[in-house]
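Posting this for the archive.
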Amino acid sequence: MELRVLEGVFDANRKIAEENRELFRKHGILAVNLMASPGAGKTSLIDRTLALLRGRVRMGVIEGDIASSVDAERVKAHGVPVVQINTGGACHLDAAMIRQALDHLPLDELELLIVENVGNLVCPAEFDLGESLKVTILSVAEGHDKPLKYPLIFTQTDALVLNKMDLLGMGDFDLGALRNTVLKMNPDVTIFELSCRTGQGLEEWAGWLERMVRGREGHS
């Protein structure tokens, strides 16, 4: 019985996710599902990305948190449309939550929508939001063994952002081992090495994201 219930939940989510995906196609929006553990730097990366792409890409943000609107207020300071979703305890966003949030965004004015998922390396990977790209952040402080412990999110992700590279060498994080593990699991993944604190690698990341926006189907 429990298995059937779970299958029903995932089936319902997939249906709404496809509706979201079609809505993004219709409006020519590149939707990015940003996933990471708490403290890995999701909001910091969004903050730096909004600053770098200001005037180059029309952007909006959906902020997902269990509670509070702290991150949304930080994003709002950039002058971009932002919607806060508080899950009230749920460990991930789902397609229905995104669909409701889209009603409060000026979709015709957006080219890039960044969705900050709830901090978690497990549940967010299991729920399709209808996104165009999945991006996972892993900070150097978390350790190079995380892909072995949480394989699904690293297998599915289109890009992996290694954040806090300024801390490399201060612990036992093995960059080579991390790269080898992830590329064996996901040979097509694009890996970025950056630091939101120092600015290292941010231009490369922002440039890639802009190219993804410009190259999307239906862009004019």
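The first strand starts at residue 30 and ends at 36. The helical segments are 2-27, 42-53, 70-76, 95-102, 146-149, 151-156, 175-185, 202-214.
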